[in-house]
Design brief:
By secondary structure, the chain is α+β, with helices and mostly antiparallel strands. Helices cover 27% and strands 18% of the residues. It has a two-stranded antiparallel ribbon.
């Protein structure tokens, strides 16, 4: 499938609806542009922006913490 778009003022462009629908892309997704130096082409890929729900439980510490103390320390720049 080949779909063409153009640049608008300020070098803006549009992701065509055919691509958005096929890849389930929405306005919160991130577009990565990569230059393939060997073929002199551009590879465009889409990735989902991680949500807080996706990140919960990814890290774990083995000591008891106090969230209020951690917040105060981070606001003071101690952490």
């Amino acid at each position: 499938m080949v779909v063409s778009t153009k640049f608008y003022k300020g070098f803006q462009t549009v992701v065509p609806s055919e691509i958005r629908n096929k890849l389930h892309v929405d306005d919160s997704d991130i577009i990565d542009w990569d230059i393939d130096e060997n073929n002199n082409t551009v590879v465009v890929s889409f990735r989902k922006k991680p949500k807080l729900h996706d990140l919960s439980g990814k890290g774990k510490i083995n000591k008891i913490t106090n969230s209020v103390d951690l917040k105060h320390k981070s606001q003071k720049g101690i952490l």
